[in-house]
Amino acid sequence: MIKMNAVDYLFQDTANLDKILLISGKKQYSYREVSARVMQLSEWIGQNFKKGEKILLISPNNLFFVTVYLAVMKAGCVVVPLSTAIEKSNLDLVIGKTGASHAFVHSSLKITEIEGVDVLSEDSPLFDFGDEKWHGYKSGPEMDDHDCAQIIFTSGSTAVPRGVMLSHGNLVANTGSILEYLALDGDDIMLVVLPFFYCYGLSLLHTHMKVGGTLVLNNSFMFLGSVLRDLNQYRCTGFAGVPSHFQILLRKSDSFRKGHFPHLRYVTQAGGKLHNAFIQEFISLFPEIKFFVMYGQTEATARLSYLPPDKLPEKIGSVGKGIPGVTLKVVDEKGEMVASGQTGEIVAKGQNIMLGYLGDDEATRQTIQNGWLHTGDLGTIDREGYIYLSARKKEIIKVGGKRVGPKEIEEVIVSLKGVVDCAVEGYEHPELGEAIRAVVVKQSGANLTKNDIREVCARKLASYKVPADVVFKERMETSLTGKRVKGSL
């Protein structure tokens, strides 16, 4: 791999373009405008911070976020993008782990002070870019493949957030791999509803920047009308979402189901398993739109596998095979590859695998073994090498000594007409040790009962997989990324 600053790689063929990079609100910004801002801010950062110094970034998706995010990495420092809803306890933990002394915070968040940290906003003179004459794009300091570019904090299956360290080489490798299978070009226009502090959202920025595409930023997915309007008004060719986005569009929006999106060429889905019923519903409604099922982790920069849309009919339920440059295996507890149909842990190897967890050598050793990323996800592999997710290791429910994966039960329940969403969990039981509870969100007006849920499970599943308890909720609690909040059921 060529030694290169990841930001210079992204701007390599696009920095001087007059075409639009960002559409945010009613404003549009060209590649030339954005790259000029990034260069100017990165020069200041380079003069005032040491190489590798950590700098926090807290902002919604907007020009401010993109400028700071790119400028910090271009200057050779390490950007730490954080959720706009981060709790004080977690912010204190991040500051303690990173030793960050400065944070760029968007003024809309009303965070003017952080103890022990200098706060900079877009009101700072730093962001008075003026109308200086364009002199062309200049490269930043050359970075080694293994130089850390960013740290993304993720709770994953643990209560305490872990800082995933991603290198310049990681970003370059994963961006190139994604572009290879999605075949994006400068005509692509992506509607972005995923926050940029999330690796899936950042991958949209990286890939479209690299090819000269356009990003339409929409920070209000819950106002579905604005999402549908933007898709058509800006002639978006792509949309990316996590399961909850597709479930809401399909089961709560008649306007989407009956809509016509002539420019939408493809959609991508990652961030958890979207049940087969929803995928089938989408492709039956919009057969002309390519549907890419994908799988990844922050620890893999973003992406690990994808299923080509033409394979969906015969391989529905699969997350596909490794993306270009990534090798995936399913292994047993001894690290040996499992036979077709047997369950094991999914492990991965490639240039997109993280450097490790910040300040946690033990967790890093447990997660990366002999160069292989142990994902913590259980799955099976078929004879043709296609991988199927079963569950997270920590999601497995043990009912009377039998191991049960929640996704199989959820799949059955969401096939019922009137179900918007479902989550299956284990709870303590005096006789079984652990029993199964199904938490169900139904459509407004749907006349579903607890018995309806149990009956469909009894028809299609073994008796020990039938939920002992069924709870109806108005909605699932989700994070700003759209993913279900663990422990909120």
Automatic annotation (TrEMBL):
Residues 408-483 form the AMP-binding enzyme C-terminal domain. InterPro entries: AMP-bd_C, AMP-bd_C_sf, AMP-dep_synth/lig_dom, ANL_N_sf. It holds the Pfam family AMP-binding_C. Residues 16-358 form the AMP-dependent synthetase/ligase domain. Keywords: Ligase. One of its GO terms (molecular function) is CoA-ligase activity. Gene3D superfamilies: 3.30.300.30, N-terminal domain of ligase-like. It comes from the Bacteria. This is Acyl-CoA synthetase (AMP-forming)/AMP-acid ligase II. The lineage of its organism: Bacteria, Pseudomonadati, Bacteroidota, Bacteroidia, Marinilabiliales.
